[in-house]
Design goal:
11 helices; 259 residues; alpha/beta; 6-stranded mixed sheet; globular; 6 strands
């Protein structure tokens, strides 16, 4: 296991892809988490915090690279902050587009996409199936009425889009997007912990997250089942068996019961 301090720029640059495995629950950060991240970013922006800001750790595990050069990493821990940061980058790109299309394209091609790849390898981050469609549409700037606009990833997108339009509800602040881009990519520090390829990612995930309230019994059952399945069978079984069962269960219980 290796640990190194890194910036978001260094983490995302190059031919990489960060994959959120099936044993993780869908994206679940809420408004209080987004508010905290935004306050930290604005503190750096206004120099209330000097230097850099430590955001937390990302635990990843390398998997076999693809024939055309993509280096995949399974995200064992840290999917919430990594997904949120890429959403913020996508919103920044959207606001930059009419003002500086070249800088917007730079964000796209260096930090959100693997420009010359196809299908799922095109994306730097690949969320779980529940989140995948809406995330892809956000990254491709195709938020519209005909796509899925529910779930926490879409809510995060709306939250940060609103913040870019009005960064401070009490003051008239107009963001310098170039300065904000530097803060986001250079001033937020992460510790990237890379496990050995032979380590069991399920066991590492449980040891990091099973503190009594983060993982439900349903999470633990799903995790156990999918880590026992051959890798090549997981997507098909998830889509054809687990997901229909999960959706059927949601319809038969009240939101309070399910929570």
């Amino acid at each position: 296991m290796k640990a190194s301090e890194t910036s978001l720029r260094n983490l995302l640059e190059g031919g990489k892809q960060f994959q959120i495995p099936l044993f993780q629950r869908p994206y679940s950060w809420k408004k209080k988490n987004w508010e905290t991240l935004w306050e930290d970013l604005m503190s750096l922006y206004t120099s209330a915090i000097q230097g850099s800001y430590f955001l937390g750790s990302i635990v990843t595990q390398p998997v076999f690279g693809t024939a055309d050069g993509i280096s995949p990493f399974v995200v064992i821990d840290g999917q919430q902050r990594l997904t949120t940061l890429t959403i913020v980058l996508a919103v920044l790109r959207n606001h930059l587009e009419p003002l500086d299309s070249e800088m917007a394209q730079e964000i796209d091609e260096l930090y959100l996409l693997n420009k010359f790849k196809k299908n799922d390898e095109y994306y730097k981050l690949l969320p779980t199936q529940d989140d995948l469609d809406v995330y892809k549409n956000i990254i491709q700037s195709r938020i519209a009425e005909d796509i899925k606009t529910t779930g926490q990833i879409y809510e995060a997108y709306k939250f940060f889009d609103t913040k870019f339009k009005k960064p401070d509800p009490d003051e008239e602040v107009e963001l310098d997007y170039t300065k904000f881009k530097t803060i986001l990519l250079e001033k937020l520090l992460l510790v990237n912990i890379t496990t050995d390829a032979n380590d069991n990612p399920y066991l590492i995930f449980e040891s990091l997250n099973n503190k009594g309230e983060d993982l439900t019994q349903a999470d633990l059952v799903r995790n156990y089942i999918f880590m026992k399945l051959p890798i090549e069978d997981r997507d098909e079984i998830y889509n054809n068996q687990w997901l229909p069962l999960q959706e059927s269960f949601k319809k038969k219980v009240t939101p309070k019961d399910y929570a």
